[in-house]
């Protein structure tokens, strides 16, 4: 399934003017296979052995290119630790308060919350983000010991 999505993303990139390089291919492949919502630093660490000339800044710049092409989503947390998501359709995230792991969670979009927010505030709402916090199964095990 993830290789199918990777192929779709590669096709989508081909239709833009983004040039495919071995580095870009490797970054995309990691993003689509890992499903961990990695930071630029996570990707850098995973690939630095294969691309000794690559820097974290290169990884980040490539992620920006993918984001502009609409094939990845950036989850910002107010500092430099943006996480990148290869699933660009709407979904929610469950986040571990201990290890920071982010897991996808599919639930019907809460459109009525957006409608209500528009009514109450007069904003023109275009998006919302909901995050659920707790302890992941492996951290629960650690806490029991
Ligand atoms: Zn955890
Ligand atoms: Zn996600």
UniProtKB/TrEMBL annotation:
Residues binding Zn(2+): 96, 99, 136, 139
GO biological process terms, semicolon-separated: negative regulation of DNA-templated transcription; regulation of secondary metabolite biosynthetic process
SUPFAM superfamilies per record: Winged helix' DNA-binding domain
Names of the cofactor(s): Mn(2+); Fe(2+); Zn(2+)
InterPro entries: FUR, Fur_C, WH-like_DNA-bd_sf, WH_DNA-bd_sf
Location(s), subcellular: Cytoplasm
Pfam families, sorted: FUR
GO cellular component, one term: cytoplasm
GO molecular function: DNA-binding transcription factor activity; transcription cis-regulatory region binding; zinc ion binding
Key words of the record: Cytoplasm, DNA-binding, Iron, Manganese, Metal-binding, Repressor, Transcription, Transcription regulation, Zinc
Coiled coil: none
Cofactor note: Binds 1 Mn(2+) or Fe(2+) ion per subunit. Binds 1 zinc ion per subunit.
Binding site residues for Fe cation: 128
UniProt-listed CDD domains: Fur_like (cd07153)
Domain of life: Bacteria
UniProt similarity note: Belongs to the Fur family.
Protein name: Peroxide-responsive transcriptional repressor PerR
């Amino acid at each position: 399934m993830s290789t199918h999505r990777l192929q779709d993303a590669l096709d989508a990139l081909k239709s833009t003017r983004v040039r495919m390089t071995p580095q870009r291919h490797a970054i995309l492949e990691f993003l689509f296979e890992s499903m961990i919502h990695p930071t630029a630093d996570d990707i850098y660490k995973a690939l630095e052995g294969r691309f000794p000339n690559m820097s974290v800044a290169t990884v980040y710049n490539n992620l920006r290119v993918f984001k502009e092409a609409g094939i990845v989503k950036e989850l910002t947390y107010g500092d430099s630790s943006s996480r990148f998501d290869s699933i660009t359709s709407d979904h929610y995230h469950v986040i571990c308060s201990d290890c920071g792991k982010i897991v996808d969670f599919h639930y019907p979009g809460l459109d009525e919350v957006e409608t209500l927010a528009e009514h109450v505030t007069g904003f023109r709402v275009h998006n919302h983000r909901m995050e659920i916090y707790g302890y992941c199964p492996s951290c629960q095990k650690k806490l029991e010991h």
